[in-house]
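new request in #modeling-help
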Amino acid sequence: MEEKWEDLIIETVSRILIPFIQIYALYVLAHGHSSPGGGFQGGCIFAASLILLFLLYGSKGLETNFPPRFLFILSAFGVGGLFAGVGAFCIVFGKNFLDYAALSTILPHGPIKARYYGMAMVETGVQFTVMCVMVLIFLKLLQEERIGV
Amino acid sequence: MRKWGVVGALLSFLALGQAVKDFPAFGDPQQPASVHVVPRYVEKTIEETKVPNTITSILADYRGYDTNYETVVIFTAGLSVMMILGGALRWRKNGKT
């Protein structure tokens, strides 16, 4: 799984498909307000597209583009920076933790529409975390295989 | 040992069969799960949050704490994998194991 997969058909089809998979993941995230979807599902789809990249081009070259340390920091940013950050922001402006009505102080909307956008931010944080943890587990299991238990 | 496992599984199956009789009927509007807070969620989601999807508003707004720590659980899974597999990698390179 470390070397490049030498097959013209698989490579071409995957290269065409991967951007659409990623767009679809972002669509599932952004459209989660009015249809089934959200951060968990969108993150899993996005991670699937990255894992397809790993399977196609081998993990060695792409580990330099997505090093595990970067993925780990990005997942911590998703849950701690975006999710808990929005919650802490609401505390600063005098509401309860995760009471998104406080976001109306910085958004040009009323407190009800601010809840809508607060939920969107929170789901984005969930998507970051889920995507990075899925890719991270895959990468780490590959490394374990390389060492040879 | 295996015989006792089969006996235990059968006993649990019979106990579950007894409990199934007391379940509310399928789609019963008066079942306990549908009369506590669900009517408020269904009726007030649009006017309180402007989100058409009730599930999203429950997941991210009414039950925000729950989703927050659900995400922390996933983050902890990634942290454990980093600690276990990353650590194993380093020990073997140093030749300690």
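bot summary: DSSP finds five helices and no strands in chain B.
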